[in-house]
UniProtKB/TrEMBL annotation:
GO terms for molecular function: tRNA (uracil(54)-C5)-methyltransferase activity, S-adenosyl methionine-dependent. Residues 86-148 form the TRAM domain. Residues 1-48 are annotated as: Disordered. GO terms for biological process: methylation; RNA modification; tRNA processing. Keywords: Methyltransferase, S-adenosyl-L-methionine, Transferase. Belongs to the class I-like SAM-binding methyltransferase superfamily. RNA M5U methyltransferase family. It holds the Pfam family tRNA_U5-meth_tr. S-adenosyl-L-methionine binds at Q356, Y392, E413, D463. Gene3D superfamilies: Nucleic acid-binding proteins, Vaccinia Virus protein VP39. PROSITE patterns: SAM_MT_RNA_M5U (PS51687), SAM_MT_RNA_M5U_2 (PS51622), TRAM (PS50926), TRMA_1 (PS01230), TRMA_2 (PS01231). This is tRNA methyltransferase.
Amino acid sequence: MAEIGQVRAPSPPSGAPAAKKPRLAANKGPGPARTTQSKSQKRRAQYNSLPELCSPEDVLWREIKGVLGEDYVDAALADGTDRQSPFEYHQELELQVVAACSTGSALATSPESSRPWVVVVPFSLPGETVRVRVYRNARMHSFADLLEVVVPNPELRDDSAVQCKYFESCGGCQYQMLPYEKQLNLKRDVVVKAYKNYADLPETAIPAIESTMPSPKQYNYRTKITPHFEAPTKAQRVDPKNPSNDTDRPGWLKIGFNLVGTHKVMDIEDCPIATPIIRETLPAVRANVVKNLYTYKKGVSLILRDSLPPASTTAAAVDAASSEPETHVCITDHRGTAREKIGPWIFEYPNSSFFQNNNSVLPSLTDYVQSRIFAPLPSGANPTPTHLVDAYCGAGLFAITLSPHFATVAGIELSAESIRAATNNAALNAVPEGKISFRAGDAADIFRTVGDFPPRETVLLIDPPRKGCDEPFIKQLLGFRAQTVVYVSCNVHTQARDVGMIIRGSGEDGKGRYVLESLRGFDLFPQTAHVESVAVLRLVQEAE
Ligand SMILES: C[S@@+](CC[C@H](N)C(=O)[O-])C[C@H]1O[C@@H](n2cnc3c(N)ncnc32)[C@H](O)[C@@H]1O
């Protein structure tokens, strides 16, 4: 068995001359540098190494291997032809789209190519013929801009569904041309592929993956956007055409999101996936940037957050949140406080700290987690859970919404200001005193403080950032042995990796092993390729 945190090296190339294998470094992730390298040596090492495990490049790479075939790719890696693109920079091609990729782009191949090679194309769908222009060549694949959908796939594409004038330029959305049901199906496939590529578990250990939970709102749902802009350069500051009192937006100023496939900002005046109050407020925020443009010394990331109106007291907050119809405001001050209602619950949190960005789907998410925790088990042998540990708890979303179902709840979170918000939210929602406790710290520290929780009656809920859990956390999780582990994740690839480690790491000491009981994607970001994933693991005692 691989040790926790150990990454398996790629399988050896079949039929490859052994002498050429060391050309590639295994994708073990960032480790301590063994020797001092010059910049160019580092660049070369980076060029030759495989992408870091679970990085977006690695997700793409594994799906490219899926299209080309593992043996073919391994042979090319071994004989050094993996960088020999059959295509020139700026070459125009007509291609067949063969697969959707978890990154949101599509994978295409050319029937006329001199050798099998993948071209990564945005905004196109499996079964389509597309005309593209190559802009970069990489290992066994090229990147291209979409010029035209020559033959659309009528079973998937509906261009009349597109609601944003920036679609196909802005890097924010990938799937507006795809009817919603089909978006949900694609996201289910992302979960399937993630567990196939990263869990390192036998097929029998992966349960049937449920259909993706839809978002009630498919546009106007995003409760936070962060458009950004670059500060004027020296030359722009002295440009007589842009005097500092200019109230018109200079042509060079772009306030918005990144152009697809680049780090360049494109100007965005409206964002139809954002909530109505954010869309209404955006023009004023943009005008304010123009007015104060020459005071900015650095680029700025703005924030627009949908919120219930501020309230001066707890009672006023509860009253305001229960008033119908709700009025909303947009909080643009990074140091402000945002408030929102999720079902009957009210949450307040600092504007610049983490909170989920699609309020409409959160009741389905928390209800689902509750229903899975308390689902009757086939054996009926397990006691009903009484204790909840919410690791990576943020402002207390899961700890508080699930608190009525537990006797004792403990939450931990790195951000001290989120913990202050979580403590305040427990009071705001009248969680009985003494039932819930929050502490600021690294998630792994929680196991030191819940030593008196009975593991067989404890649920451990984890919702880490995109990079997933670290080795010390997983080691302690395995030592603690909560009866149920609910793993909520915004990155299904690191989730699959961690779930694989948990399952393989359990069962070695005869104290029971974890089984993956259920797996379901949630659509927190309609129109985009993003999928949130909820995995439920249950500890099965060997005697059962
Ligand atoms: C995806 S958010 C989830 C928050 C919360 N569960 C929610 O749904 O609102 C991940 C949270 O983990 C916190 N975090 C990041 N690294 C951490 C660590 N090593 N230990 C504890 N919390 C951490 C972040 O500050 C962030 O609030």
